[in-house]
């Protein structure tokens, strides 16, 4: 069993809650209140800025050029492709840069990114990957599950763009590279080292769930 298969097995009880979360189902069904999505978008934009900085720590900690390229490539994809989804919604939902700049991250958001950044600062490139993987991969699985459950959701006038972005082959290919790297780097890991990764991955998976809860509760 690979490291990532092991981590996904250990966190299955958390991930299963994503697919039936009211906020996620609201996107899938196209019934989510627009104002909730708007607030989520602002928080997620703030989240992505700090998430991107976690990759930047990966660049600083890399001990080879290919590793540096892996993290730097992710930074490019995040700030261009993924944030393009957000910029599109900023236009549609009339979110200004000033509104983003003057909005404070909600506590579950701040807590999540602070945890990720701490793991990255204190650990090695392996801890960087372990802390970003729930984020990167769960959105792929969630979006693909939406498409499986309700294929027409990709055409939704408001939520279709979000679903298409995260269910895309391009997004999946980038994730596959991260998964293969983590598996490769941890082949010889001891039980204690594996346990450390499991702790990080489970915490970030819980943080993902807390982020959905936060989005659902936001006014
Ligand atoms: C909170 C959160 N988690 C994951 C993703 C997908 N990168 C995101 N945009 N926001």
Describe, in plain words, how this protein is organized in 3D.
81% of the residues lie in helices and 0% in strands. The chain has a single domain, classed as Heme oxygenase-like (Heme Oxygenase, Chain A), CATH 1.20.910. Helix 8 packs antiparallel against helix 10. It has 219 residues and is mainly alpha-helical. The chain has eleven helices and no strands. The structure holds 5-(aminomethyl)-2-methylpyrimidin-4-amine (NSP). The site of 5-(aminomethyl)-2-methylpyrimidin-4-amine has 8 residues, from helix 4, helix 8 and helix 11.
Rg measurement, Å = 17 Å
Strand content: under 5%
Helix and strand content put the structural class at: mainly alpha
Small-molecule components bound: 5-(aminomethyl)-2-methylpyrimidin-4-amine
Low-confidence stretches: none
The third-level CATH topology is Heme Oxygenase, Chain A
Report the CATH C-level class: Mainly Alpha
Shape assignment: globular
CATH superfamily: Heme oxygenase-like
Largest sheet, if any? none
């Amino acid at each position: 069993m690979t490291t990532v298969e092991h981590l996904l097995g250990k966190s299955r009880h958390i991930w299963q809650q994503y697919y039936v979360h009211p906020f996620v189902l609201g996107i899938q069904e196209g019934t989510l209140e627009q104002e909730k999505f708007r607030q989520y978008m602002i928080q997620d934009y703030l989240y992505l800025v700090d998430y991107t900085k976690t990759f930047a720590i990966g660049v600083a900690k890399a001990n080879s050029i290919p590793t540096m390229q892996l993290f730097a490539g992710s930074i490019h994809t995040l700030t261009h492709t993924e944030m393009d989804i957000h910029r599109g919604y900023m236009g549609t939902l009339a979110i200004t840069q000033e509104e983003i700049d003057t909005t404070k991250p909600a506590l579950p958001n701040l807590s999540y990114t602070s945890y990720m950044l701490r793991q990255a600062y204190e650990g090695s490139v392996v801890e960087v990957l372990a802390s970003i993987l729930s984020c990167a991969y769960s959105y792929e699985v969630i979006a693909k599950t939406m498409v499986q459950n309700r294929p027409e959701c990709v055409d939704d006038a408001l939520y279709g763009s979000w679903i298409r972005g995260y269910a895309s082959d391009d997004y999946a290919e980038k994730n596959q590279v991260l998964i293969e790297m983590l598996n490769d780097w941890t082949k010889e890991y001891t039980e204690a080292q594996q346990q450390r990764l499991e702790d990080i991955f489970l915490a970030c998976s819980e943080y993902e769930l807390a982020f959905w809860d936060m989005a659902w509760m936001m006014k």
